[in-house]
Amino acid sequence: MDAVAIPPNLENVLDEAWEAADRVPGFLVKSEARFLGTVAACAPGKGSIVEIGSFKGRSTVMLAKVAKYYGLGPIVSIDPHGFNSAELQKHRISPDASSFQEFCKNLEAAGVSDFVDIRRALSSDVSPGWTAPIRFLWIDGDHSYEGARQDFEGFSRHLVPQGIVGFHDALHAFAGPIRVFVEEVLRCNEFGPAGFVHSIAWSQFRPYDGRSFAEQRARLEQRAERLIPLLASNSELHGLRKLKFKLLRSRVPRTAIAPGEWASVLDRRSAR
After folding, report:
1. Mean of pLDDT values over 254-267
2. Which of 40, 96, 98, 187 gets the most CB atoms within 10 Å of its CB?
């Protein structure tokens, strides 16, 4: 297994990338953005960085700034740049509205337009023809269970050994990301180290020794799976249900992790 290398000047690169990403509207917080940048810079293996769900480009800019600095290849950004019916109704948005123009302007302002391979499409339109290896699969698209599962199943089979999968909003009130993470990743012996950073759920694809991390994944699963029944109805959380969700979520470890600490987690041969 290849050791995880921390490239030179990473802290400064993460600072500069976040400064650019923070100018872009979006829901990614600083600790999450720095984690994405760390994965982009340090994830072992050779392959693409694939982002499913870009919105106005906050995470895209973070990933692209880091990858461009280290010459790690362009970010593949997959998003139809439309709005779903719930968003249209809630925010009184025109059915013809799109985030695409603002997305492009934000990439240009950050100086990464030439480092993003834009696929303006649904992931389900792209995945059937996808053949390239992936070293980081970042899933932040449709947060329904069906949508998150489709995103994962469409691209996870292309993860290279030691590659990373991440789900955004896995600890927010969405049915899809947390359920797919628990059922398809934490319960699968082909995945190894796993964890949460704020609302990001992540794991490393370890088909050769993932079973040795089963206990660590099971401990995380035991805490995370308790959230799933509260989100099954796809309705907004209110009252006691909302309080219970927050209480159970508080028991899931989700603190920020420094690059060196994260590298040491991946370098462990087993969970013992």
Report:
1. 94
2. 40
